[in-house]
Amino acid sequence: MIKTDCHMHTSISSDSDTPMDEMARASIDAGLDTITFTEHMDWEFPEIYDLNFRFEPDEYFAETDRARKIYGGKITILNGIELGLKYDLKTSYDCFLDKYGWDFVIGSTHLVDGIDPYYSDYWCKASEYDCIKRYFECVYENIKSFNNFDSLGHLDYILRYTPTRPSVYSYNDFKEIIDSILRFIIKKDIALEINTSGYKSIGQPNPSRSIIERYVNLGGKLITIGSDAHSAEYVGYKYDELSKLLRAAGLKEYAVFKNRTPIMRRIF
Ligand SMILES: [Zn+2]
Ligand SMILES: [Zn+2]
Questions:
Q1: Cα of 156 to ligand 1 centre, how many Å?
Q2: With CB atoms 3.0 to 4.6 Å apart as the test, which of 6, 44, 223, 232 could cross-link to 26 if both were Cys?
Q3: Which listed ligand is nearest to 39 at the C-alpha?
Q4: pLDDT tens string for the chain (268 positions)?
Q5: Which ligand is nearest to the CA of 157?
Q6: pTM for the full predicted model
């Protein structure tokens, strides 16, 4: 059974209203033994959007210290961050990460050429296929430029927001660019994050099963697991279903990062 959730947000992130205490209590109730709070940090997020996706690290570390004092006897709480990648932020992000003692850094692509695909504007520019392909190209550009992170967040995140049914797209439709991304992270010892938030909107994790299978096929073994919960009811979301999928894909272990170092745990 998977007993950790290494991707969740609290009210420290600008898109969540849930206090850290509530997330910690829900995690204990869900039977988890380790969680990582990975708040959003997206530098240069366009001001046209209502959310700024930034937080004050000192406030974050004070909050996790406080939570550990209260819940530390029941659950291990680790310090993480979800960095919004942008190819030109390498130096700024390197300096920023060096200043603090993170356990775990997720690198996620949320913007495509400065536009958030969450909004319909993004999808008016080109065909749906080309919009999706451009997302993967951006992921690859971003990680080639900056790869000081531990796990690649929600690789096919774009599928959550496609105007039509996402199930028509699979690994095969974008295999060249997806292979480049997977080969790159394997070579760099960066983990592939399996994010269960996609089960809510598209009935599959991010990345989808065919990409996970391809990752294993290419020799990938290092995965992290997280719900990307922004509220208490989604902590450890769909872990039973995910365990079966991972086992069928040939994966037996996942990693929990502490001090930026993977500790392997059995899926079953
Ligand atoms: Zn994200
Ligand atoms: Zn997230």
A1: 11
A2: 232
A3: 2
A4: 899 999 999 999 999 999 999 999 999 999 999 999 999 999 988 888 888 899 999 999 999 999 999 999 999 999 999 999 998 999 999 999 999 999 999 999 999 999 999 988 899 989 999 999 999 999 999 999 999 999 999 999 999 999 887 667 889 999 999 999 999 999 999 999 999 999 998 999 999 999 999 999 999 999 999 999 999 999 999 999 999 999 999 999 999 999 999 999 999 8
A5: 1
A6: 0.97
Q: Which ligand is nearest to the CA of 158?
A: 1
User: Who's near 228: CB < 8 A, 6+ residues apart?
Assistant: 7, 8, 9, 154, 195, 196, 197, 234
Which domains can be identified in the chain, with CATH numbers? 4-266 (3.20.20.140)
What DSSP assignment string belongs to 12-60? TSTT----HHHHHHHHHHTT-SEEEEEEEE-TT--TTSS------HHHH
For ligand 2, the distance from its centroid to the CA atom of residue 50, given in whole angstroms, is 17
